[in-house]
Amino acid sequence: MDKFVITGGNPLHGEVIVSGAKNAAVAILAAAVLVEDTCVIENVPIIKDVKVILEILRQLGAEVQMQENGTVVMNCSNLNTFEATSDLVRKMRASYYLLGALLGRFGKAQVSLPGGCDFGGRPIDQHIKGFEAMGAMVKVEHGNVYATTVEGMKGNSVYMDKVSVGATINIMIAATKAQGMTIIENAAKEPHVVDLANFLNYMGANIKGAGTDVIKIKGVDKLHGGTYSIIPDQIEAGTFLVAAAACGGDVLVKNVIPKHLDAITAKLVEMNVEIEEMDDAIRVKRSGKITKANVKTLPYPGFPTDMQPQIVALLSVAEGTSMVTEDVWDNRFQYVSELKRMGAQISVNGKTAVIEGVGNLTGAPVRSTDLRAGAAMLIAGLMAKGTTELQNLEHIDRGYENFEQKLCGLGAQLVREKMEE
Ligand code: EPU
Fold first, then answer.
1. Strand 157-159 relative to strand 144-148, pairing
2. Mean confidence (pLDDT) of the chain
3. Strand blocks (E) in 234-372
4. Nearest in space to 400 (alpha carbons), one of 377, 382, 381, 374
């Protein structure tokens, strides 16, 4: 177990390069199971979640090489099982994409129920609804999902009762090589949904409409190999924008798609932060006080739930009272008690946090309760007076590539230390 020892109060200056998108990478790597040829996938972030999914794919019989520059070369021709039930599968959320991938490849799948961050209930009923519409018989027993078909997956129309990134992606993967046309209505529109569709289309799939709420997938018999580069990580970019706004200073966040960050940059401007957009970079400057704002998380193109903890950390020192409403997950405010240890004044009532801005946070021993909460606590430590010890870094390591190196490159003061037993 590692911890960060953070000395707060230093403005951030300089340039930082954003890595490839975690949530696109984990979907694309799983979807590569459909390709019986060599895929070269570039701009893959070297993070724990990616290492875990690659290890699971190796266990299934895939040949996988990860290069230091973030290029993954993989070949799933010799995949020899439809069962993914190892301990690793239970550790991460995105392992549920193996359901769609193995169903698409073999017409059957047996996959352990996934793990991942704890935000209250994380049902997969919409994934199952989609697979059943496509002819699969699905049962959940003994911690595993068992899905079988008589003659492979068959295209159908699926209306999502709730906008779900995971279900949209899983059904898209399962439909890529199904017989006939699948239409997903009320689909998620997140950038990584579009990135996955682009990857599959590069490899020979026929998917139209990704990025809108109706996606049409005409099944193809075979996919071919090729080279594909993953989009930059929207949430990592947003985290650096908020960190720079929190600490003050002047930072150029490079390798971003500014359009993906519109909801975040618009809020930062409202909060008195200077934003300058370029083709593939955003400059963020803050010299005055942060001002209050109200934020509601929503599916894309709304404000992302994965930026909610970071923005709450920033609003904790704003002038005035802000309200942040979490409209995607039932229980994503566990980290608030940690922020309060640092002097934040926040009360949570159901899905809404009311944040009374305080002049300063003060350093304290705190912990990460999940991935984005960990990023928020790190930002809080960077802007606090004094020293913060942030524990449970395993969450941050799952999703941010070289986080401390990138922050230290901007002038942040933090060191990783081993915790004493
Ligand atoms: N939902 C259902 N039934 C389902 C699926 C989802 O009711 O079958 C509900 C969920 O309970 C939630 C809402 O729908 O209330 C949205 O869930 P979604 O399926 O969109 O989430 P996810 O696919 O499990 C992905 C990201 C999360 C991110 C959410 C929302 C991955 C691996 N994870 O999760 O990312 O919060 O979309 O944008 O892509 C993170 O990166 O830190 C992270 C948690």
1. unpaired
2. 96
3. 249-254, 274-277, 281-286, 294-296, 321-325, 345-349, 352-356, 365-367
4. 374
Q: What pLDDT digit, counting tens, does each position of 41-52 carry?
A: 999 999 999 999
pLDDT of residue 315: 98
Tokens of 19: 């890595």
Helix (H) or strand (E) holding 87: helix 87-91
Query: DSSP assignment, residue 305?
Result: G
Ligand 1 pocket member 126 (CB < 6 A):
yes
**pLDDT digits 0-9 by tens, 345-402:** 999 999 999 999 998 999 999 999 999 999 999 999 999 999 999 999 999 999 999 9
Q: Cα dist. 265→149, 239, 273, 275, 351 in Å?
A: 46, 11, 9, 7, 23
β-strand partners of 72: 41, 66
Cβ contact 103:136 at 8 Å: yes
For the segment 92-135, what is each residue's pLDDT rounded down to a tens digit?
Answer: 888 899 999 999 999 999 999 887 677 777 899 999 999 999 99
Q: Ligand 1, residues 164, 325, 330: which to mutate, most atoms within 8 A of Cβ?
A: 164
Q: Number of C-alpha atoms within 13 angstroms, CB side, residue 421?
A: 0
CB 363: neighbour CB atoms within 10 A? 22
Q: What is the mean pLDDT of residues 325-352?
A: 96
Residue 247 a catalytic site member: no
Mutate to test the pocket of ligand 1, among 122, 125, 189 (most ligand atoms within 8 A of CB): 122
CA of 328 to the centre of ligand 1 (A): 8
Cα separation of 23 and 313, whole Å?
23
259-264, long-range: CB within 8 Å, 24+ apart, which pairs? 260/191, 260/231, 260/232, 260/234, 261/234, 261/237, 262/301, 263/301, 263/302, 263/303, 263/304, 264/238, 264/303, 264/304, 264/307, 264/311
pLDDT at site 119: 77
Q: Is any ligand 1 atom within 6 A of the Cβ of residue 161?
A: no
pLDDT band at 421 (very low <50, low <70, confident <90, very high): low
Matching residue, tokens 């942060």: 290
Q: Tell me the pTM.
A: 0.97
